[in-house]
Design brief:
It is built from 3 helices and 5 strands; from the N terminus they run αβαββββα. By secondary structure, the chain is an alpha+beta fold. It starts with a helix and ends in a 9-residue tail after the last helix.
Length: 109
C-alpha cells in the first residue's frame, strides 16, 4: 500500500513539472510573450544567446510571486522577442539581503 501511495505522489510531481509550457520568445511579439505568461502563470522561455553564438539560454518566467517557491521574490528580467531586443518579464529569485543592509561608513573625526 505504501509503495502505491509513493508511486502516485511521484507521478503527481512529475505531471506538475511537465505542465509548464515552453516557448521561443524570438518567434513572438513582446506583447504576446507577456500575454502568454499572464495567461499561464509560469512558462519556460528558451532562446539563443546574443553574446555567445550557439549557446541556448532558458529560464522560468512568472506572472507574480504566487508562482515562485517559498523564500523567492519576483524580479524583473528581460528576454529578446520578435519585435524588441529587451522585453520586460519577471523571474523568481532569492532576495539579496546584502543589497538592503549595506555596511554603514562612519566619517573620521
Amino acid at each position: 500500500m505504501r509503495t502505491i501511495l509513493l508511486a502516485a505522489c511521484l507521478m503527481l510531481v512529475a505531471a506538475e513539472a511537465q505542465a509548464v509550457s515552453r516557448y521561443d520568445p524570438t518567434r513572438m511579439s513582446c506583447d504576446r510573450v507577456r500575454a502568454t505568461i499572464a495567461r499561464q502563470g509560469a512558462v519556460i522561455l528558451r532562446y539563443q544567446s546574443t553574446r555567445v553564438p550557439g549557446l541556448p539560454l532558458y529560464d522560468r518566467y512568472v506572472r507574480d510571486e504566487r508562482f515562485c517557491n517559498m523564500g523567492e521574490v519576483r524580479a524583473r528580467a528581460y528576454v529578446p522577442s520578435a519585435d524588441v531586443k529587451s522585453c520586460p518579464v519577471y523571474i523568481c529569485k532569492r532576495p539579496d539581503f546584502d543589497r538592503h543592509f549595506r555596511r554603514r561608513i562612519f566619517p573620521r573625526h
